[in-house]
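Lecture notes, part 5. Sequence design as translation. It can be helpful to think of inverse folding as translation between two languages: the language of shapes and the language of residues. The source text, in structure tokens, appears below.
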């Protein structure tokens, strides 16, 4: 097996274990005569819930049918609410249906669970329903407060709120009931904080309470749950990596006051400094940081300072590193042959990556995740203190470590100050070889995006990456985009097989797209357009490579001549592009930026073999979108219709 194949195999996603199917397990339990785990449920009711879960899984797109199903199922739970939510299957079904419950049904469940909150909050099944009740109640209680204008920067608390009259679909009495339940449950959780913090199930209720009270919709990295009724999720796509903004809903001041109480009480505990080092409590503190960010800036600053000085890097922590030894090992690492994977791995393992000379926060994954949350919510001064105390002069070590390279990425993502980013870049610029060797290429993505965001070090980034990929020699520079897409040094790539499909690294694709958005993307653009059409076609038909077409066609600094050359370069290949799944996407991008004259030439090319288009699912979509049949009938009418359509879109 060649070296290149080995590298590609390492970069491929690991096969995940197949998740257990909840529905099939529920059916197996029923066949054995066991009506699920938890409280006992009559066999007839259990089989009914199995059928309901099966129907939900298949999808119910009609709103009336969905409402009928929800009302019928919740009607069957009357006087059996506590028993049903204590059962594994019953809990799952009720949890799915409560967001669509009528006001009467929701209030019935609220009244049923209220007397037994203490027991239910710690139950492994019922606690999930309590969480759902809290989220649904809070959503309905605050719906009338939401501003329809989402363009406002959610990172800052608005000083003046624009009052909008929003007609709620719920009555005032129901809104009041939901608000009272939200406050009651959150205050109950606050009063039992000492017990709930250490309980596996009640801890999640604390987190949900903080999210609801502070207006958090999605945490960073959290994806919205896919609705089993096949409703569209809408614009809530989660907060992907390398994004440092969060959206908060408007909530009453009374809610924020409870969040403040949560924060003050937790931060006053003597064991607060150790809570970040346990999975359960670290997750709670992360939610607390995101919540308090929207409530009280001064309290956020105080908590971060307390965490930094007492937990992340206490003043009395001792660094046992031998500086001379690390310096010598760094020099040895620099002289190693980068072509030898085993030697590079050895260099990374022994070349300065010694955990004992790092602050204690880096010894625990739980604490590291809390540190990442702290970086996300920290303001400029606090961010500088965290950087100085935990990261400075250690970025090279941290970036090459399997777990800690993600923390370096979050540090870079949240840097918006030119004077701070430049030393970070300088410290990591001589580690590009090691980052490529160990596969921690997410750090390179974070650096590229930071160069684009802060508008500094862009050419230095391209030059350093080009050197790491060994594309600086004359004759090799034109292969820089290929080496970047694969994140493999050019001497490991078989250049005579670039017209065949090959593995493209997702990070490499993102880096190349980012470079094409730099202020001077000429080198990357020119190299891409120098590739033969067959090799360019391989890139544009790939799942990750097709996004390069987006950057080429929409990049603010990619010239018109470069786009014209791309359109000319692909002449004769548009049919092949349109027939493939990912190539059809790139085709649409290229077609959208073409002039009318160029559009006509492209349409002429693909219409000559329109039968091929109609024979492929993706080609058929292209043919329908571009009205290929109408073009074949009358080119002039098609042109007039397209010009009119373009005018309507622009107006």
């Amino acid at each position: 097996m060649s070296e290149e194949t080995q590298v590609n195999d390492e970069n491929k996603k690991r096969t995940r274990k197949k998740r257990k199917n909840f529905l099939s397990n529920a059916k197996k339990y029923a066949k054995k005569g066991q009506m699920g785990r938890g409280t006992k449920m009559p066999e007839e009711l259990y089989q009914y819930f199995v059928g309901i879960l099966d129907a939900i899984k298949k999808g119910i797109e009609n709103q009336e049918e969905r409402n009928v199903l929800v009302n019928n199922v919740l009607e069957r739970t009357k006087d059996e609410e506590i028993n049903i939510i204590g059962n594994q299957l019953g809990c799952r079904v009720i949890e799915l249906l409560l967001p669509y419950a009528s006001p009467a049904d929701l209030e019935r469940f609220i009244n049923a669970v209220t007397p037994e909150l203490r027991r239910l909050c710690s139950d492994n099944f019922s606690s999930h329903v309590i969480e759902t009740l809290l989220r649904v109640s809070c959503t309905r209680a605050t719906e009338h407060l939401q501003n329809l204008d989402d363009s406002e920067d959610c990172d800052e608390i608005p000083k003046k709120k624009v009052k909008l009259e929003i007609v709620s679909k719920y009555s005032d009495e129901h809104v009041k009931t939901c608000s009272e339940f939200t406050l009651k449950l959150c205050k109950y959780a606050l009063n039992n904080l000492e017990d709930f913090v250490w309980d596996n199930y009640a801890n999640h209720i604390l987190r949900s309470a903080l999210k609801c009270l502070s207006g958090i919709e999605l945490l960073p990295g959290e994806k919205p749950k896919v609705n089993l009724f096949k409703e569209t999720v809408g614009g809530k796509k989660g907060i992907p990596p390398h994004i440092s903004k969060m959206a908060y809903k408007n909530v009453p001041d009374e809610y924020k006051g409870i969040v403040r109480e949560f924060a003050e009480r937790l931060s006053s505990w003597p064991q607060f400094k150790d809570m970040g080092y346990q999975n359960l409590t670290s997750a709670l503190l992360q939610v607390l940081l995101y919540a308090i960010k929207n409530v009280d800036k001064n309290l956020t600053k105080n908590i971060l300072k307390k965490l930094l000085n007492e937990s992340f890097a206490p003043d009395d922590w001792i660094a046992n590193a031998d500086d001379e030894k690390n310096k010598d090992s760094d020099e040895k690492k620099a002289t190693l042959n980068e072509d030898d994977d085993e030697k590079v791995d050895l260099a990374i393992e022994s070349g300065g990556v010694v955990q004992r000379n790092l602050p204690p926060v880096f010894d625990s994954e739980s604490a590291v995740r809390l540190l990442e949350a702290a970086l996300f919510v920290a303001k400029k001064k606090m961010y500088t203190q965290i950087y100085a105390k935990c990261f400075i002069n250690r970025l090279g070590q941290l970036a090459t470590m399997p777990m800690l390279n993600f923390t370096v990425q979050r540090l870079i993502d949240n840097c918006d100050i030119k004077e701070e980013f430049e030393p970070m870049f300088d410290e990591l610029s001589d580690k590009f070889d090691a980052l490529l060797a160990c596969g921690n290429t997410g750090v390179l993505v974070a650096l590229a995006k930071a160069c684009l965001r802060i508008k500094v070090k862009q050419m230095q980034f391209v030059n350093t990456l080009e050197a790491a990929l060994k594309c600086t020699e004359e004759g090799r520079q034109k292969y820089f985009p290929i080496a970047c897409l694969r994140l493999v040094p050019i001497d490991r790539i078989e250049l005579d097989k670039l017209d065949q499909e090959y593995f493209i690294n997702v990070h490499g694709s993102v880096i190349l797209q980012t470079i094409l958005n730099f202020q001077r993307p000429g080198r990357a653009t020119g190299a891409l357009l120098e590739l033969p059409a067959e090799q360019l076609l391989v890139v544009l038909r790939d799942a990750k490579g097709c996004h390069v077409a987006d950057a080429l066609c929409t990049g603010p600094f990619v010239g018109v001549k470069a786009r014209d050359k791309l359109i000319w370069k692909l002449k004769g290949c548009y049919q092949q592009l349109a027939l493939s799944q990912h190539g059809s996407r790139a085709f649409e991008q290229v077609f959208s930026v073409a002039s009318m004259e160029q559009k006509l030439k492209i349409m002429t090319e693909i219409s000559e073999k329109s039968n091929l288009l109609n024979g492929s699912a993706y080609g058929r979509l292209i043919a329908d979108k571009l009205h290929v049949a109408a073009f074949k009938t009358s080119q002039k009418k098609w042109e007039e219709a397209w010009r009119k359509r373009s005018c309507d879109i622009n107006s």
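The translated text above is only one of many valid answers, since several sequences can fold into similar shapes. Residues 172-191 form the longest helix (20 residues).
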